Structure formats: structure tokens, C-alpha cells
Amino acid sequence: MRPSNRRPDELRPVRITRHYTCHAEGSVLVEFGNTKVICTATVEESVPPFLRGKGQGWVTAEYGMLPRSTHSRMRREAASGKQGGRTLEIQRLIGRSLRAVVDLQKLGERQIVIDCDVIQADGGTRTASITGAFVALTDAINGLIAAGKLTESPIKEAVAAISVGVFEGTPVLDLDYPEDSACETDMNVVMAESGHFIEIQGTAEGVPFSRAEMNALLDLAEKGIRELLALQQQALAG
Amino acid sequence: MRPSNRRPDELRPVRITRHYTCHAEGSVLVEFGNTKVICTATVEESVPPFLRGKGQGWVTAEYGMLPRSTHSRMRREAASGKQGGRTLEIQRLIGRSLRAVVDLQKLGERQIVIDCDVIQADGGTRTASITGAFVALTDAINGLIAAGKLTESPIKEAVAAISVGVFEGTPVLDLDYPEDSACETDMNVVMAESGHFIEIQGTAEGVPFSRAEMNALLDLAEKGIRELLALQQQALAG
Amino acid sequence: MRPSNRRPDELRPVRITRHYTCHAEGSVLVEFGNTKVICTATVEESVPPFLRGKGQGWVTAEYGMLPRSTHSRMRREAASGKQGGRTLEIQRLIGRSLRAVVDLQKLGERQIVIDCDVIQADGGTRTASITGAFVALTDAINGLIAAGKLTESPIKEAVAAISVGVFEGTPVLDLDYPEDSACETDMNVVMAESGHFIEIQGTAEGVPFSRAEMNALLDLAEKGIRELLALQQQALAG
Amino acid sequence: MRPSNRRPDELRPVRITRHYTCHAEGSVLVEFGNTKVICTATVEESVPPFLRGKGQGWVTAEYGMLPRSTHSRMRREAASGKQGGRTLEIQRLIGRSLRAVVDLQKLGERQIVIDCDVIQADGGTRTASITGAFVALTDAINGLIAAGKLTESPIKEAVAAISVGVFEGTPVLDLDYPEDSACETDMNVVMAESGHFIEIQGTAEGVPFSRAEMNALLDLAEKGIRELLALQQQALAG
Amino acid sequence: MRPSNRRPDELRPVRITRHYTCHAEGSVLVEFGNTKVICTATVEESVPPFLRGKGQGWVTAEYGMLPRSTHSRMRREAASGKQGGRTLEIQRLIGRSLRAVVDLQKLGERQIVIDCDVIQADGGTRTASITGAFVALTDAINGLIAAGKLTESPIKEAVAAISVGVFEGTPVLDLDYPEDSACETDMNVVMAESGHFIEIQGTAEGVPFSRAEMNALLDLAEKGIRELLALQQQALAG
Amino acid sequence: MRPSNRRPDELRPVRITRHYTCHAEGSVLVEFGNTKVICTATVEESVPPFLRGKGQGWVTAEYGMLPRSTHSRMRREAASGKQGGRTLEIQRLIGRSLRAVVDLQKLGERQIVIDCDVIQADGGTRTASITGAFVALTDAINGLIAAGKLTESPIKEAVAAISVGVFEGTPVLDLDYPEDSACETDMNVVMAESGHFIEIQGTAEGVPFSRAEMNALLDLAEKGIRELLALQQQALAG
């Protein structure tokens, strides 16, 4: 039995609120149950130095957590003077996941910066971030099209992400914090609309996992991501 | 005429939402018009090294802005590796303002850390932070009383803060960003329930200001803070 | 009774020594009693990136304390790897105070950097810094005029600063360290020759202060700054 | 055809040299073709603060590259003042992979620090590091047993790692740099002797990958890791 | 001919002013011509971690330059976030030079921190620092004896330092900045009262130097240091 | 008697292995007994900002130690966020030593970066670094000549370095770690093929040293460096 009484293949209630803050070109509050992340997309009419003059754009991401988004207060990274390894790992993952669905040539020499800031954490912040960030990115790109700066969308397909894991011997979908901190195996899956994978990161926290367990987890992940992709479309249609 | 069509002595719509996030001992979303700040209060059962064994507590604050809380994206301080001068200045001001209304002996050897994180900025983030932080602090202290860890409240009186300034020759209350960036003189006033001042910080952005102007600004500030103190009480009673 | 036996409205002996070191375009040793600060002004024929090509100049300041300028040794900021919040706050104040009396258009595309380094501290280092820095700035600008690089002075009026506070119930002028560390209310006032204010920063260290106390402190500050402005003129005439 | 003329399921020549440097408790040079990594294991008779007094040990890892281990010189991380995101990601992976095969209770209150330093890079540095680090860790633990500090080995089973990827449409084993920089999908697999997985990290560099491709890659990885586990045993027996 | 018209074996005018600032246990302004350094000695009743409980003391040094002590302004090290290599090199040299003449056992478990801060630079700042620091150290130690904390002086003998160099083919004593920046060979010599050397650091800036040149430079240095040792004694007797 | 049973004037076995790693323009493993350093030379077709457009080149060096190159593990400088004073001092010494034998005009507007990374330490790492770095530099420059980018070698003469010291009263050549940590006086000597000195750094670790001791040490150093220069030539001829 899951602590939240969910079925093994049941997502938490997911909400995607567009136009959440007023300044960014895309701004989304994404909620996976009690996990809440603000995802903004900023359009910058320049690219990082390594891309200058190459006729292509870039999509990058930064990730942060408010110090008291968690059960006990975490040290503020701005105060400690550096971003931790987990933060860097997550923001690199978000950036790669979004770049995989964007045609950077079509984007032109501009950069879209995604900021994912967790205001409340209950497990799955990185997968919520990717799922929400895609909607913010889409809003920002639609803004470029509306402004006549782009004639066609450089977005190739949608992308969403979910965590899955083996909790007390059972493969479950969308781990919340109590599950995440107790589970034996934890996998984050990023999948595109086509059903193909962009990232799979599986980690045995305790006992190494078998090929069969892995397959069961991937089945769950595919189901969950299908639902998330539908929710993204609903939000964008709303 | 003010860009927002407000009267010179009119606050923006102020909203104070308690229990905004779920983990912190006090958690408040404070809104002064489009300025939105999450203020959390964390209780730690230890004090900083300089106070160990002295039988008194401490209240301190940290402040941050989400990178895209502003019109154009600011660099993330965690990524740049240090907090800027403005950030440090504001978080020192918030900490001093709250300590001025708390009896640190009565608090006992524990620390309350206030985090003020701006999710949307439109001027007045530091005064909104102080005003919201007082409510979060009160909730955290009431929690300590409810838990039997304190028998009486160490809070001596309420505190709130507002900005005032001379905009196009007229003293006005609660500057929003268009006013703040154009005004000649800018003053942040922190006042306690008793009507006495805790901090007054007046700066001539352009033309130095006279004693008479200063007095007019203080009159406006007193009026505004009285209204904020009433709104805090309403929120705490709610 | 003040620890120094001064009358409530009495400044400490103030000395302003020009040409204190030999390399800088302006170099002043300013002494407020035992507080001693070296203020140098450096002329740089370039402006910071955010001003390039805008046809105006800039004045900025940096502040530091020798590790053993104080009663007990402070950690060297260069060794700890960052400037503390108090340092940043003070140097921002010095910079704003000087910019308020300089016509940056008339200065042309050049920058004047003021360095205020405290070699001995006994309270009031920031106000001594501003008072001395104005003299160093004036010498640097007069050098530009003498060299034919400027035809008229961009200095609009003189500026000086003093601290005032309520010590054992009495408003006093120019706090020394024993007063500063014991006083209830502490105010730093920066005023221009015109008698108008550039900055007022009042802080209740212990008990919040009333409007009446504030007015008494401002009266004292005006008297003290008038005397400092006269001493600056004497030094510049010397 | 692979640039190295290897068959799709062929590892590069692998060499594991024990006792490579003289001071560390375990010291291994591991070579996967032209990729060369020095892996040392250091035994420290203390644990990090978060584990003190809990009666268990810890295994952690650090990773670095010599500036000119690569085709063009990389900036020295010690000079730039921080470890990059890739470095942190890799050293976290190495640490997790080794902890997964060590019984930390049996290790007792001591820490083993693994340092993996790449002296020459040609793809696969993280998987070579894990493979070599396991041998260095085993030597260090055998030293503890020989010294009578441990009575039984806390090592539960062996671990090794390999990269696999889709290169020009074909799944291949043990990517070298020319393959790694051109491949569509890249997967790092960490597997224990039991045939169960510890980490799977698959990334679509270009085109998202299907479930079938993933399965082909995992088959290759299993084959390669079996060979590596045998080579580790040979080296430890030697 | 030397730019200063000095004879090859002539020191610049040297002045040693004790009790230069009021808080430190030893405080000296040392002047070698236009080079001016404030040297303070701080007594701390604790030792660094690596010496705790070993029954011996420590002497260490820090060095800094005011940003405008030099011809053109140098970046403030506190602002750039780290001490440069030259700074670290010099402060390590000062520390070693003083420790060489102090019996650290006799000093007891306390530390003396020497701060050398250059307020005006014209060559030879490190040798002036050592020469002045010895006087500040002696004052601090005499204070400990006067306070009954030490019964005998741990100072074994005096130490002073001077620079020598080959300038336009001629060995000269006590290089000033114009000589230092143009000379072929530069040597800093630290010598104790006994006539034995504590440090010799010779560097060929341009052309490598012969054994004969080196001997001529050491002869000059011995002569100069003899004079400095006498000036130290005069100052301490004063 | 020396711990290694060497005669006082006997070097440790010295080995110089060229082409040690495959990517760098020059790559040498230098061994002085158990001290092993990888020295690479990287050619960059640009110069640092302070030299741009001056028609001359630059040679610079960086130095590092693997964390477990030493008896007990040292903290990784990349992890601690800065290079220590000893590291900076050594890399400055290596850079100066090499620049002294290179005609920077002839090198043209390009930079050669030398990286010296200690993989095993047993005393004398800086002198081994200089000795090995010269060979790597020569290989890199010969590569430029072979590629037609230089028509004649900018190398003026060879350079090598050795440490000497007074160990238990006897001057000895090429200190290993047991000697280095126990010796009274320690001197590092950098000498060119011409027999002239480039750097002499003598330090009294315990008792100050006399002129006679210094001369004995220099005699030893000259003998040792002559042997090293011959070994460099052999290696380059090999």
C-alpha cells in the first residue's frame, strides 16, 4: 500500500497553471501533488559565446529550491557560494531534455533560458520541472511566432517526464517524498510524444535491480508520461 | 497623476495569505499589488556560534529574487557564486527590523530564520518582505507556544514597512516599479505598532531632499503602515 | 555624560590632510578623533560596461578596514574570499553620496574610483569616509581641470556626513565607538552644502525612536555637517 | 564500421595495473584503450559529520582530469575555482556505484575516499573509473583485513561499468571519443556481479531512442561488463 | 648612476615609527624612502588547529596593498575574491622569516598574527615589511612579558631584510621601483643578527646571473641589513 | 648517512620519458626516484590580454598534485575552490624559469602552457617539474618548427633544477621526502646550461645558514644540474 493510498500506476493530481507570473515570456506553475515548481522561459536575443555566428539557437536551464521548500531548511545556495552537485545535475538534465525536442537551427540565433524554482518539494521535482518547462517553453516560442520573429515553430514534439521506482517490492508511478526516500530503485524517465526516450536514469538506492524490474518500471513510466503529455496539451489549449 | 491612478496616499491592494507552503513553521505569501514575496519562518533549536550558551535566541533573515521575477532576467545569485550588495543590504534590514520587536531572552536558545523570496517584483519588495515576514514569524512563535516550548510570546509589538517617495514633485505612498525607477527621493520606513520607528532609510536618487519633504514622506509612511498593521492583524485573526 | 567628556553637540577633533600618499590623483587622510581613514581618488579614462558610449561618467567607491584597525582583529576580507554585507553596504553608500553632488554628464566618459581604507577605527568610519572622500574627489577633479581635460567642474555642491544617536537618553553628535556600541538609536546623515539631505539612515538598535527624537537628531546632524563643510573648505583652501 | 575497426560488441584492450603509485592503500591504473585513469583508495579512520556515531562507514569519490588529458587543453578546475557540473555528476556516480556493493555497517566508522584522475582521455572515463576504482577499493579493504582492522570483507559483490551507444545506426560497445562525440544515443551502465543493475543512464544526444534500441544496448552492456568483471578478478588474483 | 642619485651601497632613508595605530599589541609604520607599510602584531590566546595541545605557539603573517598604493590602481583583492599568488608568496615569506627567530616553545600556546599593509609602494615592500614586522613583534612580546604572561622573551635574535639587484650592470642596494622594474637580477635577502641567512631569493629577470654577481649582491645585502638591524635597535630603544 | 644510502652528492635515479600521453604537443613523465611528475606543453595560438598585439609570445605554467600523490591524502584544490599558496608559488617559479631561456619575441604571438601534475611525491617535485617541463617545452617548439610555424628555435639554452640542503649537518644533493622534512636548510636552484643562475631560493627551516654553507650547497647544486642537463639531452636525442 502506498503512503498516499494511490494505486501503483496512479499519478498524483497534476495541475499546470500558465501565465503564473507576469514578466516572463513563458511562466508556468506546475504541481505534482504537493510538489510545486515555478517554470519560466526567458527569450534572449543572443547566444552563448561558443555558438556565436553559427546561425543556431540554444535552450538552457537553471534549477533551484527555495530554502524552506523542504521538510527541514536547506542552506541557500546563493549564500553558500555555489550550486551543489545535485542542482547542477538536475539543471543539465532539464536543458538536455528540452534541447532534444527543439530544432536549434530553426530557433535562430537566440537563447531561451528556463528557470525552474521549487517552492514546495514532495518528491519528483526534476520530472515536474521538465513537464512544466515544456509548457513555458512553448508559450515563449508561440510569443516569438506571434511577434513575427519566427515563421514556424522549432518544437519538434512534446516532452514530459516522470519518476518510477520499486517501493516495498512493488513498481510504482510518480514517487512522492515518503516513497522516494524509502524506495529500493528509483528511475527518472524523460519521453517524447513519439514514445521514444530522451533520458533514462535508473539508480539502485539499495538492492541492484533486474532487467525484469526495469521493464516493469518503463511500462509504468510510459503510461504516466502519456497522461502528462495529454495534460500539457489541455493546458496549452486552455 | 500616478501611473497606477492611485491617490498619493493610497496603498496598492495588499493580500496576506498564511500557510502558503506546507513545510515551514510560518509561511506567508504577501502581495503588494504585483509584488509577490514568499516569506517563511523556520525554527531551529540552536543559535549561531556567537550566541551559544548565552541563554538568548536570534532572528535572522535571508532574501532572494527568482531570476525572472523582474522585467528582464537577473543572473541567479547561486550561479554567480555570491549574493550582491543589494541582497545583503535587504536581508540585514529585514533581520534587524524583526529583532527590534522580539525579546530575544524570552525566545530562548533557538533561532528563527526568515526567508523572503520574491517570485514577482514590481517595487517595494523589501517593505513587503518585512510586512509578510512579521506574520510568518508570529505563526512560527505561536507554534512554539502551542507545542509548549514557550509559555509567553517574545513578540513585543507588531512591525510593518512601506516605501514612500517624491514622484514628479508629489510625495506618494507605496511606490511601484514605474514610480520607483523615476522618483527623485525614495524612503523606506519600518515602524512598530507603537508608532515609533525602527528604520528610516531615505535616499536622494536625483535631487537632495529638504526637511519639509522628509516630514511629508514620514506622514504618508505612518498612514500606510497603520493600514498594513491592521491588515496583518486581520490575516492573523483569519 | 559622554565617555569622551564632549558636549552633546560637539564633534571630535577633525583633521583633513591632503596629498597623504603620492600616487593617487586625490589622497586624503581624514581623522575624526581616533578614527582614521585614507581616502584616495583614482581617475580612469573609461567607464563601466553599462555606461559605455552614453557620454557620461561615473563615480564609485570601495571601502575596507585593515584587519587590526579595530579593538580585536577582524578577518582580512581578501583572505576570507569575500567582502561582508557591512562593507558592501558602506561602499554603496559612499558611492551614492558622491554621485549625488557630481554632474555625471559634465564629468565625461571617465570614472573616478574612491577607495576608503580605515587604518584605525573608533566609530563613524562611514561618515568620515564620505567627508574625506569629497576632498579627494575635488582634488582629482581639479587635476583634470588643470590638465585641460575638463573646462568646468562637474561638482554641483559639497557633501559631508556625520553620525548622531541617542546615548543614555540624550541625543549626541558624532558617536565614538563606546557610544556607538551602547546607543539606543543610531543615525547616519549625509547632507549637501544646500542643507538638503542625500541620505538618512536611522536604526533603532534597542528601543524604537519617536518622531521627536528623530527631529532632535537631525538638528544635531545639521549643525555637525555645517562644521564639517567648513573644515573641508579650509582644507581645500590650504 | 567503427573508426577503431572494432566489432560492435568488442571492448577496447583493457589493462588494470595494481600498486600503480606507492602511497595509497589501493592504487590502480586502469586503461580502456587510450583512456587512462589513476584510481586510488584512501582509508580514513573517521566519517563525514552526518554519519558520526552511527556505527557505519562511508565510501565517496572525487574525479578530475589533467588539463591536457584531452585533445585541446581544458581549464584546470583548481584554477577556475570550482568543479564543473560534469565533474560533480561523475564523482557522484562513482561514489553511488561503489556504495551499492559495500555493506557500510560492516565497514565500521571509517571512510574510503576514491580519487579517479584521468591522465589521458579517449571516451569512457567514467566507466573506466568505476571499473578501476572497484579494484583499488578491494585492495584497500584487503589491507584493512590484513591489518586486523576488519574480520570480514564488507564487499558484497563486484561492480564494473561500460558505455554503449548507437553509432551510425548500430548499437556498439565501449565508445571511444570519435564514437562518443558522434553517436545518437549514449548509455552508461553500471552492473554488479549478480547481473543486476546499479545505474543505467541513457541519453539521446540527437534522436530519441526506442525501447528496442535500449534493449539491444543493455544486451551489449551486459556482455561487456561480464568481461570487465573477469578482468578485475584476474588483476586481483595476479 | 641610480635614478635616486644614491650610491650603489646606499639605503633609502629608513624610518621606523612605533605605536602608529592604537589598538594592536605592536604597531609600526616602516618607511624605506617612499615605500610605507603599516605592520601590526596581534596576540591571540589560541593556536591554529594543527598545533592545538602541542604546547607551542605560532607566528603567522598576512600582507596586503591598498588599491592605490601603486602608480596605477590595482584591483582590491577583497573585491576580486582571492589573494593573488604574489600576495600569498610574500606573506608566507614574512611568516617564515619571523618564525625563524622565535622559539615557538617558549612562546606558549598562543599565536601572533602580523599584518603588513602597504599604504604607499615604491619597491621593496616585502623587505620593509619584514624589517618593520620584527619591531611590531618585539613590542607585542614585550607586552606579554610586562603583563606577566611570559617570563622570558622567546625572541632568539633580530631579523631584517633588504633587496639587492644588478641595475644597469652594477650591483646596488635597496631597489626602488624604477630600479626594480628595470633590473636584470633581483635578490631579496633575509638575515638574522648573527649574520646568518634565513632566506635568499634571487631571480634573473632578464639575463641569468653568475656566482660572482651573486657574491657581490650578498656583500651589499649584508651591509644594508647591518644598518637596518641598528635602526631597529634604535627604534626599540626610543 | 642518508636514509636512502646515497652519497651526499648523488642524485636519485632520474628518468625522463617523452611522449608519455598522446594529446599534448609535448608530454614528459619525469621521475626523480619516487617523485613522478607528468609535464605537458600545450601550444595556443593566442596570448594573454596584457600581451595582445605586442608581437611577442608567452610561456606560463600550472602545477598540481593528485590528492593521494602524498603520504596522507591532501584535499583536492578543485574541490576546496582555490589553489593554495604553495601551489601558486611553485607554478610561478616554473613559469619564470622557462621564460628565462626562451626568446619571447622569436616565439611569436603564441602561448605555451606547461602543466606539471605530480602523480607521486617524494620530495623535489618543483625541481623535477622544471627539469621535465624543459623537455616538454622543447618537444612542443620542435613541433612548431616541423610544422613550419617557426623557422628557428626561440630556446636560448637548456635549464634544469635541483634541491640541495643541509641534512644532519651535511650538505646533500637532491633531497627526498625524509630528508626534506628533517633538514635544517633547503635550497632550490635553477640553473641554465651556461652555468649561470636563474633562481636561487634558500630557506632556513631551523637554524639560519652561513655563507660557507651556502657556497657548499651551490657547489652541489651545480654538479647535480650538470648531470640533469646531460640527461635532458640524452632524452631529447633518444
Layout: helices, strands, pairs:
The structure is a homohexamer of 238-residue chains.
Chain A lengths: L13 E5 L7 E7 L2 E10 L13 E8 L11 H4 L4 H15 L4 H4 L3 E10 L4 H22 L12 E9 L2 E4 L3 H4 L4 E8 L4 E8 L6 H27 L1
Parallel strand pairs in A: 4-5
Antiparallel strand pairs in A: 1-2, 2-3, 3-5, 6-7, 6-8, 8-9
Helix pairs in contact in A: 2-4, 4-6
What features would you describe in this structure?
The structure is a homohexamer of 238-residue chains. By secondary structure, chain A is of the alpha+beta class. Chain A has one domain (14-237): Ribosomal Protein S5, domain 2 (2-Layer Sandwich). Helices cover 32% and strands 29% of the residues of chain A. Chain A is built from six helices and nine strands. In chain A, strands 1-2-3-5-4 form a five-stranded mixed sheet. In chain A, a hairpin with a 7-residue loop joins strand 1 (14-18) and strand 2 (26-32). The longest helix of chain A is centred in the C-terminal third of the chain and has 27 residues, at 211-237. Chain A starts with 13 loop residues before the first strand and ends with a helix. In chain A, 54% of the residues are buried. The model of chain A has no long low-confidence stretch (mean pLDDT 96). Chains in contact: A-B, A-D, B-C, C-E, D-F, E-F. At the A-B interface, strand 3, helix 1 and strand 5 of A face strand 3, helix 1 and strand 5 of B. Strand 9 (197-204) of chain A pairs antiparallel with strand 9 (197-204) of chain D. Chains A, B, C, D, E, F: Its EC number is 2.7.7.56.
